[in-house]
């Protein structure tokens, strides 16, 4: 018989299968992913990193209104979707563009919100990706609802719900965990603990031994992983998804990672943290360690490298080309999507704007 | 003190600094208000100057922030809290509506809550969704809340000082698009109190009634109208609750015509309240129905479309033109 603590508390240390030097480690509960999975992960990491770099460059050129980068967190971004099946759902935040894109969402549509042409650019049903949530943690009860509905309908869908370390302080986080546990909803709550909520470090956010410990109070099993180790994340998240799918209820996973860059381009991180704090995290980069490991295995041949680079070049070009022209925005859209049917008042207001614009042109 | 050229953001910062110096029970807290100095730098340097106990970061939870402020106010302090953006204050709505607004009433005046909730609000800064709401009507509709909003640098300082000294909870709405514009001001000059509107410009032909971010637009419209031969009075409400019926109605009676200008959507809003009051109280002085220039009744648009949503000089002038200057 396992005790409640054994069942619900996270591992004593974050699960790490490939350490920052590229050295693999055995783990009693998790197995190293297959060669194919790791090579696929490598390719996706290279592409994800390039997406971040290109989007940041485009912000500097004024092509995006704002970009909250996941630079350094790409292993989390990609593991979160690599463990999902087609029918599963992703509930992302503003920081999770790489995750969204990796689900198959068009890169330009992924960036519609941050470009400023509409609030959300993609059809959530097409790839089962909810609109990015900006009000923190508010997406989590929705994730529970989608998961619960799937169960009621007899579907074996799993919902991957993303949240930051700061977001775990919001009431909605706690309500979502509790609801999910009570209804045994198949949700994997995945916390990307990047140590900061804008300027507020984790130590000022929570006094819990770890964020994964927040599960036990709700009866939700918690686990934690090295957030820069794609291998460990795939193993931990993969197991969580399968447990949720098998009817074992919600799972809470915390990834220990780091926000290498400022909160967004608008933020000045030098006001609240020292550069020497950032430096060690650069040594823990998710791409470097996987590259070392794959090289040592002799798996990283020229073909794999070339394919990965081609994917990166392609996504960068997609962003540059897609974001260069000024987006076509139609003022009539302002009134188009409020209600299933148009109200008389909105018809009048739309007509008012039409007249005004016609007069401007005349 | 002599005149200095400062921005509204700096004036708000100075008001907090001076209030904290003047009264030890004033404490400032919220998200990123410590080391960072707030995302708009309104609390810049306060932690360094007054220490962690007087200005501090909290966990990221607005209901917690406002709820804790209620408790601290119950226990002798004067908390000033910051909601990072208008729409991020909504998780605290329950605390604001059910407790902040009602504590005095529920306890027959035994418990007072001298606290200030600072909220940067409104559009015009190219923010993505949830960063540009005008949420004042929710608060103005809630009995028990005092709601003020400065439109000038001097008022930013004066009103915030008065809000902190006020015996009741004040929702202090800061028009974020006005944060950075500088004005020459003397902060020691006393400003009218909470509950008082001021006439920013006198003109005999019609009155523009505005508040917060709409005031500079109304002033500009009045400037243009004057050049075109029509003299407009501009009333800056400053205080949405309590509402200064006297100043507003006196201006409307003098001019016989009025346009209300607001950045918020018009339906069931502060602007509809103003029209209702003016119509009820000044009906026989009115030569035309009171008109409104407000945002459309739609969610605040994304950056690329926001200019259609904001009140403009042209829309104000069109509304003024519509005030039945002659029989048609
Ligand atoms: C309800 C709410 N309050 C405040 C904010 C403003 N805000 C945006 S991001 C952020 C920090 C979030 O930190 P975290 O959850 O750790 O996510 P990260 O940005 O690090 O990915 C804050 C305070 C918000 N978006 N929503
Ligand atoms: Mg964080």
From TrEMBL, chain A:
Catalytic activity: N(6)-[(R)-lipoyl]-L-lysyl-[protein] + 3-methyl-2-oxobutanoate + H(+) = N(6)-[(R)-S(8)-2-methylpropanoyldihydrolipoyl]-L-lysyl-[protein] + CO2
Record Pfam families: E1_dh
Enzyme class: oxidoreductase
Cofactors, names only: thiamine diphosphate
Ranges for domain Dehydrogenase E1 component: 49-309
EC number: 1.2.4.4
Gene3D superfamilies in alphabetical order: 3.40.50.970
Function summary: The branched-chain alpha-keto dehydrogenase complex catalyzes the overall conversion of alpha-keto acids to acyl-CoA and CO(2). It contains multiple copies of three enzymatic components: branched-chain alpha-keto acid decarboxylase (E1), lipoamide acyltransferase (E2) and lipoamide dehydrogenase (E3).
Name of the protein in question: 2-oxoisovalerate dehydrogenase subunit alpha
TrEMBL record, chain B:
Keyword Ribosomal protein: no
Cofactor(s) needed for function: thiamine diphosphate
Entry superkingdom: Bacteria
The keyword Ion transport is assigned to this record: no
InterPro entries: THDP-binding, Transketo_C/PFOR_II, Transketolase-like_Pyr-bd, Transketolase_C
Record key words, sorted: Oxidoreductase, Pyruvate, Thiamine pyrophosphate
Transketolase-like pyrimidine-binding domain: residues covered: 6-181
Name assigned to this protein: Pyruvate dehydrogenase E1 component beta subunit
């Amino acid at each position: 018989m396992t005790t409640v603590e054994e069942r619900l508390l996270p591992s004593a240390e974050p699960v790490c299968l490939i350490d920052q030097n590229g050295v693999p480690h055995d783990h009693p509960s998790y197995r190293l992913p297959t060669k194919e999975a790791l090579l696929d992960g490598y390719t996706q990491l290279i592409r994800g990193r390039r997406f971040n770099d290109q989007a940041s460059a485009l912000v500097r050129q004024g092509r995006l209104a704002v970009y909250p980068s996941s630079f350094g967190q790409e292993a989390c971004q990609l593991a979160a979707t690599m463990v999902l099946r087609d029918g599963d759902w992703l509930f992302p935040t503003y920081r999770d563009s790489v995750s969204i894109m990796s689900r198959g969402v068009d890169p330009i549509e992924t960036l519609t919100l941050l470009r400023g042409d509409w609030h959300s650019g993609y059809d959530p049903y097409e790839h089962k990706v909810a609109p990015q949530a900006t009000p923190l943690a508010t997406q989590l009860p929705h994730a529970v609802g989608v998961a619960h509905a799937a169960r009621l309908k007899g579907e074996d869908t799993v919902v991957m719900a993303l949240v930051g370390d700061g977001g775990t302080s919001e009431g909605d986080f706690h309500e979502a965990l509790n609801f999910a546990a009570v209804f045994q909803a198949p949700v994997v709550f995945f916390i990307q603990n990047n140590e900061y909520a804008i300027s507020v470090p984790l130590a000022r956010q929570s006094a819990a031994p770890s964020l994964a410990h927040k599960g036990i109070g709700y009866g939700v099993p918690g686990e934690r992983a090295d957030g820069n180790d794609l291998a460990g994340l795939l193993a931990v998240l993969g197991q969580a998804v399968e447990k949720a799918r098998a009817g074992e209820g919600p799972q809470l996973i915390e990834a220990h990672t780091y926000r290498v860059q400022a909160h967004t381009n608008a933020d000045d991180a030098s006001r609240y943290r020292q550069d020497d704090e950032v430096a060690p995290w650069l040594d823990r980069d998710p791409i470097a360690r996987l590259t070392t490991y794959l090289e040592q295995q002799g798996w990283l041949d020229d073909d794999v490298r070339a394919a990965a680079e081609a994917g990166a070049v392609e996504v960068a070009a997609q962003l540059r080309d897609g974001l260069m022209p000024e987006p076509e925005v139609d003022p009539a859209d302002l009134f188009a999507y409020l209600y299933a049917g148009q109200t008389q008042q909105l018809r009048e207001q739309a007509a008012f704007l039409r007249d005004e614009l016609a007069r401007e042109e005349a | 003190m002599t005149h200095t050229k400062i921005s509204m953001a700096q004036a708000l910062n100075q008001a907090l600094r001076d209030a904290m110096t003047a009264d030890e029970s004033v404490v400032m807290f919220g998200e990123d208000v410590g080391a960072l100095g707030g995302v708009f730098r309104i609390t810049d340097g306060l932690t360094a100057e007054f220490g962690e106990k007087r200005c501090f970061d909290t966990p990221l939870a607005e209901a917690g922030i406002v709820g804790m402020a209620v408790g601290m106010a119950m226990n002798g302090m004067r908390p000033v809290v910051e909601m990072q953006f208008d729409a991020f204050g909504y998780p605290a709505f329950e605390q604001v509506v059910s407790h902040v607004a009602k504590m005095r009433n529920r306890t027959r005046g035994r418990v007072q809550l001298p606290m200030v909730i600072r909220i940067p609000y409104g559009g015009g800064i190219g923010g993505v969704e949830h960063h540009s709401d005008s949420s004042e009507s929710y608060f103005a509709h809630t009995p028990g809340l005092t709601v003020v909003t400065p439109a000038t640098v001097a008022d930013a300082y004066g009103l915030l000082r008065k809000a902190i000294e006020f015996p009741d909870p004040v929702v202090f709405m800061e028009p974020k698009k006005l944060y950075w514009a500088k004005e020459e001001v003397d902060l020691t000059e006393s400003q009218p109190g909470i509950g008082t509107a001021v006439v920013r410009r006198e003109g005999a032909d019609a009155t523009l009634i505005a508040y917060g971010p709409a005031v500079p637009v109304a002033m500009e419209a009045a400037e243009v109208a004057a050049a075109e031969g029509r003299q407009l009075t501009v009333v800056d409400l400053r205080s949405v609750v309590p509402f200064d019926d006297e100043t507003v109605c006196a201006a409307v009676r003098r001019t016989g015509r009025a346009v209300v200008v607001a950045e918020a959507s018009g339906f069931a809003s502060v602007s509809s309240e103003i029209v209702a009051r003016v119509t009820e109280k000044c009906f026989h002085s009115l030569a035309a129905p009171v008109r409104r220039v407000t945002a459309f009744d739609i969610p605040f648009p994304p950056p690329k479309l926001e200019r259609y949503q904001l009140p403009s000089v042209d829309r104000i002038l069109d509304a003024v033109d519509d005030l039945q200057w002659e029989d048609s």
